[in-house]
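Hello Y.,

Per our agreement to keep a running log of every chain we model this quarter, I'm adding this entry. I've kept the format consistent with earlier entries: sequence first, then predicted structure.
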Amino acid sequence: MAFGGDVHFESHVAALLRHPSTSLASLRPYLAPADIAMVNLETAITRRGTPAPKEYRFRAPASALTTLAGAGVDVVSMANNHAADYQAVGLQDTLAARRTSPVRIVGIGANAREAYSPAIMNVRGQRIAVLAASQLRDWTLQTWEATSTRPGIAGARPIAPLLEAVKSARLKADVVVVYVHWGVERMSCPDATQRDAARKLAAAGADVVIGSHPHVTQGAGREGSAYVAYSMGNFVWYSRNSSASSSTGVLTLTLDGRKVVASRWTPLRVSSSGVPKPPSSAEATRMRRDWQASRSCTGLRAIPSRTSSSEPTSSESPGSQSPSPESP
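Predicted structure for the entry above:
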Protein backbone atom coordinates (compact mmCIF):
# COMPACT_ATOMS: atom_id res chain seq x y z
CA MET A 1 0.00 0.00 0.00
CA ALA A 2 1.21 3.53 -0.82
CA PHE A 3 0.05 6.70 0.92
CA GLY A 4 0.41 10.41 0.15
CA GLY A 5 -0.92 13.46 1.98
CA ASP A 6 -3.19 16.41 1.25
CA VAL A 7 -4.24 17.19 -2.33
CA HIS A 8 -6.21 20.00 -3.91
CA PHE A 9 -6.32 21.80 -7.27
CA GLU A 10 -6.55 25.39 -6.10
CA SER A 11 -4.89 28.50 -7.58
CA HIS A 12 -2.14 27.67 -10.12
CA VAL A 13 -2.47 23.93 -9.33
CA ALA A 14 -5.79 24.03 -11.23
CA ALA A 15 -3.72 24.01 -14.43
CA LEU A 16 -3.11 20.30 -13.83
CA LEU A 17 -6.77 19.64 -14.62
CA ARG A 18 -6.32 20.64 -18.27
CA HIS A 19 -4.70 17.27 -18.97
CA PRO A 20 -6.20 14.98 -16.33
CA SER A 21 -4.89 11.69 -17.68
CA THR A 22 -1.24 12.80 -17.84
CA SER A 23 -0.56 15.85 -15.65
CA LEU A 24 0.35 13.76 -12.59
CA ALA A 25 1.99 10.94 -14.53
CA SER A 26 5.30 11.73 -12.81
CA LEU A 27 3.79 10.36 -9.59
CA ARG A 28 2.92 6.97 -11.08
CA PRO A 29 6.30 5.36 -10.26
CA TYR A 30 5.64 6.08 -6.58
CA LEU A 31 1.94 5.18 -6.43
CA ALA A 32 0.94 2.85 -9.25
CA PRO A 33 3.17 -0.14 -8.31
CA ALA A 34 1.27 -0.51 -5.02
CA ASP A 35 -1.80 -2.72 -4.86
CA ILE A 36 -3.64 0.19 -3.19
CA ALA A 37 -2.59 3.86 -3.30
CA MET A 38 -4.40 6.52 -1.27
CA VAL A 39 -4.35 10.28 -0.63
CA ASN A 40 -6.56 12.87 1.10
CA LEU A 41 -8.57 14.93 -1.40
CA GLU A 42 -9.09 18.24 0.36
CA THR A 43 -11.63 19.96 -1.86
CA ALA A 44 -15.31 20.00 -2.75
CA ILE A 45 -16.01 18.45 -6.16
CA THR A 46 -18.22 21.13 -7.65
CA ARG A 47 -18.37 24.27 -9.78
CA ARG A 48 -21.42 25.58 -7.91
CA GLY A 49 -22.65 26.27 -4.40
CA THR A 50 -22.48 28.89 -1.66
CA PRO A 51 -19.01 29.55 -0.21
CA ALA A 52 -18.69 28.47 3.41
CA PRO A 53 -18.13 31.20 6.03
CA LYS A 54 -14.42 30.45 6.45
CA GLU A 55 -11.09 31.85 5.26
CA TYR A 56 -9.94 29.06 2.95
CA ARG A 57 -12.39 27.41 0.53
CA PHE A 58 -11.36 24.83 -2.05
CA ARG A 59 -13.26 23.36 -4.98
CA ALA A 60 -12.49 21.58 -8.22
CA PRO A 61 -14.43 19.93 -11.06
CA ALA A 62 -14.86 16.18 -11.30
CA SER A 63 -11.79 16.00 -13.54
CA ALA A 64 -9.81 16.17 -10.27
CA LEU A 65 -10.76 12.53 -9.74
CA THR A 66 -9.57 11.54 -13.22
CA THR A 67 -6.34 13.41 -12.59
CA LEU A 68 -5.72 11.43 -9.41
CA ALA A 69 -6.52 8.18 -11.19
CA GLY A 70 -3.88 9.16 -13.75
CA ALA A 71 -1.37 9.46 -10.90
CA GLY A 72 -2.03 5.87 -9.84
CA VAL A 73 -4.35 6.67 -6.93
CA ASP A 74 -6.98 4.04 -6.15
CA VAL A 75 -8.87 5.54 -3.21
CA VAL A 76 -9.21 8.99 -1.62
CA SER A 77 -10.42 10.23 1.73
CA MET A 78 -12.82 13.17 1.68
CA ALA A 79 -13.37 13.24 5.44
CA ASN A 80 -11.73 16.61 5.94
CA ASN A 81 -12.39 20.30 6.60
CA HIS A 82 -12.77 21.28 2.92
CA ALA A 83 -15.11 18.62 1.52
CA ALA A 84 -18.18 20.81 2.21
CA ASP A 85 -16.65 24.21 1.39
CA TYR A 86 -19.54 25.01 -0.99
CA GLN A 87 -22.27 23.80 1.34
CA ALA A 88 -25.45 21.96 0.31
CA VAL A 89 -25.23 22.34 -3.47
CA GLY A 90 -21.50 21.68 -3.51
CA LEU A 91 -22.00 18.60 -1.36
CA GLN A 92 -24.76 17.40 -3.68
CA ASP A 93 -22.37 17.71 -6.63
CA THR A 94 -19.58 15.98 -4.70
CA LEU A 95 -21.80 13.00 -3.95
CA ALA A 96 -22.88 12.84 -7.59
CA ALA A 97 -19.23 12.81 -8.66
CA ARG A 98 -18.56 10.07 -6.13
CA ARG A 99 -21.03 7.78 -7.86
CA THR A 100 -19.13 7.88 -11.18
CA SER A 101 -15.61 8.41 -9.84
CA PRO A 102 -12.69 6.42 -11.33
CA VAL A 103 -11.23 6.25 -7.80
CA ARG A 104 -12.94 5.03 -4.65
CA ILE A 105 -14.05 7.78 -2.23
CA VAL A 106 -14.44 7.22 1.52
CA GLY A 107 -15.36 9.36 4.51
CA ILE A 108 -18.30 11.18 2.92
CA GLY A 109 -21.83 10.12 2.03
CA ALA A 110 -25.52 10.83 1.70
CA ASN A 111 -25.93 9.78 5.34
CA ALA A 112 -23.86 8.43 8.23
CA ARG A 113 -24.12 4.85 7.01
CA GLU A 114 -22.49 5.77 3.72
CA ALA A 115 -19.93 8.13 5.24
CA TYR A 116 -18.64 5.51 7.70
CA SER A 117 -18.78 2.62 5.21
CA PRO A 118 -15.42 1.29 4.07
CA ALA A 119 -14.29 0.73 0.54
CA ILE A 120 -13.70 -3.02 0.31
CA MET A 121 -11.01 -4.12 -2.13
CA ASN A 122 -9.80 -7.62 -2.91
CA VAL A 123 -6.02 -7.82 -3.12
CA ARG A 124 -4.06 -11.05 -3.54
CA GLY A 125 -6.80 -13.09 -1.93
CA GLN A 126 -7.34 -10.68 0.97
CA ARG A 127 -10.17 -8.26 1.66
CA ILE A 128 -8.92 -4.77 2.48
CA ALA A 129 -11.31 -2.33 4.17
CA VAL A 130 -10.46 1.39 3.93
CA LEU A 131 -12.29 3.98 6.05
CA ALA A 132 -11.83 7.69 6.72
CA ALA A 133 -13.00 10.28 9.25
CA SER A 134 -12.18 13.78 10.47
CA GLN A 135 -11.33 14.59 14.07
CA LEU A 136 -11.17 18.37 13.60
CA ARG A 137 -13.59 20.34 15.73
CA ASP A 138 -14.23 22.97 13.05
CA TRP A 139 -17.01 24.51 10.96
CA THR A 140 -17.18 21.54 8.58
CA LEU A 141 -17.65 18.91 11.25
CA GLN A 142 -20.05 21.10 13.22
CA THR A 143 -22.18 21.89 10.15
CA TRP A 144 -21.77 18.91 7.84
CA GLU A 145 -21.13 15.85 9.94
CA ALA A 146 -23.19 13.06 8.37
CA THR A 147 -26.19 11.80 10.35
CA SER A 148 -28.93 9.27 9.65
CA THR A 149 -30.86 11.97 7.77
CA ARG A 150 -28.19 14.42 6.57
CA PRO A 151 -25.31 14.11 4.09
CA GLY A 152 -21.79 15.01 5.12
CA ILE A 153 -18.46 13.68 6.30
CA ALA A 154 -17.62 10.96 8.80
CA GLY A 155 -16.56 12.42 12.14
CA ALA A 156 -14.24 11.12 14.82
CA ARG A 157 -14.94 13.61 17.60
CA PRO A 158 -16.33 11.95 19.61
CA ILE A 159 -14.48 8.93 18.30
CA ALA A 160 -17.11 6.31 19.20
CA PRO A 161 -18.82 6.17 15.74
CA LEU A 162 -15.47 5.62 14.01
CA LEU A 163 -14.48 2.92 16.48
CA GLU A 164 -17.76 1.14 15.80
CA ALA A 165 -17.11 1.40 12.05
CA VAL A 166 -13.64 -0.09 12.53
CA LYS A 167 -15.02 -2.95 14.62
CA SER A 168 -17.65 -3.64 11.96
CA ALA A 169 -15.02 -3.57 9.19
CA ARG A 170 -12.86 -5.94 11.24
CA LEU A 171 -15.60 -8.58 10.92
CA LYS A 172 -15.69 -8.24 7.11
CA ALA A 173 -12.07 -7.74 6.15
CA ASP A 174 -8.61 -9.25 6.56
CA VAL A 175 -6.94 -5.80 6.79
CA VAL A 176 -8.47 -2.53 8.07
CA VAL A 177 -7.01 0.84 7.05
CA VAL A 178 -8.19 4.14 8.57
CA TYR A 179 -7.25 7.56 7.14
CA VAL A 180 -7.86 10.31 9.73
CA HIS A 181 -7.86 14.10 9.37
CA TRP A 182 -6.54 15.36 12.71
CA GLY A 183 -3.87 17.25 14.61
CA VAL A 184 -2.61 20.83 14.79
CA GLU A 185 -1.39 22.73 11.75
CA ARG A 186 2.40 23.13 11.42
CA MET A 187 3.11 21.00 14.49
CA SER A 188 5.77 18.37 13.83
CA CYS A 189 4.62 16.12 16.71
CA PRO A 190 1.19 14.57 17.24
CA ASP A 191 -0.87 16.02 20.06
CA ALA A 192 -2.46 14.06 22.89
CA THR A 193 -5.77 13.76 21.05
CA GLN A 194 -4.11 12.13 18.04
CA ARG A 195 -2.13 9.72 20.18
CA ASP A 196 -5.17 8.73 22.21
CA ALA A 197 -7.21 8.18 19.03
CA ALA A 198 -4.43 6.09 17.46
CA ARG A 199 -4.33 3.80 20.52
CA LYS A 200 -8.11 3.40 20.46
CA LEU A 201 -8.19 2.69 16.72
CA ALA A 202 -5.49 0.05 17.09
CA ALA A 203 -7.40 -1.55 19.99
CA ALA A 204 -10.62 -1.53 17.90
CA GLY A 205 -8.92 -3.53 15.15
CA ALA A 206 -7.28 -1.06 12.75
CA ASP A 207 -4.11 -2.44 11.16
CA VAL A 208 -2.96 0.76 9.46
CA VAL A 209 -3.76 4.33 10.57
CA ILE A 210 -2.72 7.21 8.30
CA GLY A 211 -3.09 10.89 9.17
CA SER A 212 -3.30 14.26 7.45
CA HIS A 213 -4.06 17.95 8.11
CA PRO A 214 -1.00 19.40 9.94
CA HIS A 215 0.56 20.41 6.55
CA VAL A 216 3.89 19.01 7.76
CA THR A 217 4.95 15.41 8.17
CA GLN A 218 4.83 13.71 11.56
CA GLY A 219 6.39 10.47 12.72
CA ALA A 220 5.38 6.91 11.96
CA GLY A 221 5.84 3.47 13.47
CA ARG A 222 4.21 0.70 15.45
CA GLU A 223 1.37 1.29 17.92
CA GLY A 224 0.68 -2.11 19.42
CA SER A 225 0.07 -4.39 16.46
CA ALA A 226 -0.97 -1.51 14.18
CA TYR A 227 1.16 0.79 12.04
CA VAL A 228 0.49 4.53 12.49
CA ALA A 229 1.72 7.46 10.37
CA TYR A 230 0.51 10.60 12.13
CA SER A 231 0.75 13.05 9.22
CA MET A 232 1.69 12.73 5.56
CA GLY A 233 1.99 16.49 5.07
CA ASN A 234 1.06 18.32 1.86
CA PHE A 235 1.26 16.39 -1.41
CA VAL A 236 -0.20 18.16 -4.46
CA TRP A 237 -0.45 21.65 -3.03
CA TYR A 238 -0.41 25.33 -4.01
CA SER A 239 1.94 26.79 -1.38
CA ARG A 240 5.48 26.21 -0.20
CA ASN A 241 5.57 28.47 2.83
CA SER A 242 8.53 26.73 4.40
CA SER A 243 10.89 23.83 3.96
CA ALA A 244 8.73 21.84 6.37
CA SER A 245 5.46 22.51 4.51
CA SER A 246 6.97 21.58 1.14
CA SER A 247 8.62 18.44 2.51
CA THR A 248 6.53 15.44 1.52
CA GLY A 249 6.81 11.92 0.24
CA VAL A 250 5.14 8.58 -0.34
CA LEU A 251 4.91 5.99 2.41
CA THR A 252 4.87 2.45 1.06
CA LEU A 253 3.87 -0.33 3.42
CA THR A 254 4.27 -4.05 2.84
CA LEU A 255 1.86 -6.30 4.74
CA ASP A 256 2.00 -9.99 5.48
CA GLY A 257 -1.53 -10.82 6.56
CA ARG A 258 -2.55 -8.06 8.97
CA LYS A 259 0.99 -7.12 9.93
CA VAL A 260 3.07 -4.35 8.36
CA VAL A 261 6.43 -6.04 7.86
CA ALA A 262 8.23 -3.28 5.94
CA SER A 263 7.89 0.44 5.38
CA ARG A 264 9.60 2.77 2.91
CA TRP A 265 9.54 6.55 3.00
CA THR A 266 10.34 8.03 -0.42
CA PRO A 267 11.04 11.75 0.09
CA LEU A 268 9.69 14.33 -2.36
CA ARG A 269 9.51 18.12 -2.42
CA VAL A 270 6.41 20.12 -3.45
CA SER A 271 7.52 22.05 -6.55
CA SER A 272 6.43 25.47 -7.85
CA SER A 273 3.80 23.70 -10.00
CA GLY A 274 2.34 22.06 -6.89
CA VAL A 275 3.49 18.59 -7.98
CA PRO A 276 5.92 16.70 -5.71
CA LYS A 277 9.33 16.19 -7.30
CA PRO A 278 12.38 14.14 -6.26
CA PRO A 279 14.96 16.14 -4.29
CA SER A 280 18.70 15.88 -4.85
CA SER A 281 20.43 12.79 -3.52
CA ALA A 282 21.94 14.71 -0.61
CA GLU A 283 18.63 16.32 0.29
CA ALA A 284 16.82 12.99 0.03
CA THR A 285 19.26 11.49 2.51
CA ARG A 286 18.65 14.35 4.92
CA MET A 287 14.86 14.12 4.50
CA ARG A 288 14.89 10.38 5.18
CA ARG A 289 16.94 11.02 8.31
CA ASP A 290 14.44 13.69 9.43
CA TRP A 291 11.54 11.32 8.78
CA GLN A 292 13.11 8.65 10.96
CA ALA A 293 13.95 11.17 13.71
CA SER A 294 10.37 12.46 13.79
CA ARG A 295 9.29 9.21 15.43
CA SER A 296 11.03 10.28 18.65
CA CYS A 297 8.05 12.38 19.86
CA THR A 298 5.32 9.92 18.88
CA GLY A 299 5.71 7.03 21.29
CA LEU A 300 5.72 4.69 18.29
CA ARG A 301 8.16 1.83 17.72
CA ALA A 302 10.21 1.30 14.58
CA ILE A 303 9.81 -1.70 12.29
CA PRO A 304 13.00 -3.78 12.01
CA SER A 305 14.67 -2.90 8.73
CA ARG A 306 15.55 -4.97 5.71
CA THR A 307 18.22 -3.80 3.29
CA SER A 308 16.93 -2.79 -0.14
CA SER A 309 16.83 0.16 -2.55
CA SER A 310 14.87 3.22 -1.38
CA GLU A 311 14.19 4.50 -4.88
CA PRO A 312 10.96 3.77 -6.79
CA THR A 313 11.04 1.46 -9.77
CA SER A 314 9.62 2.42 -13.14
CA SER A 315 7.39 -0.65 -13.34
CA GLU A 316 3.68 -0.13 -12.84
CA SER A 317 2.66 -3.73 -12.27
CA PRO A 318 1.15 -4.41 -8.83
CA GLY A 319 3.70 -5.44 -6.26
CA SER A 320 6.65 -4.87 -8.59
CA GLN A 321 8.51 -2.67 -6.10
CA SER A 322 10.61 -4.63 -3.67
CA PRO A 323 10.09 -3.62 -0.05
CA SER A 324 12.58 -1.08 1.23
CA PRO A 325 11.85 -0.13 4.82
CA GLU A 326 13.04 2.81 6.81
CA SER A 327 15.82 2.24 9.29
CA PRO A 328 14.82 1.89 12.94
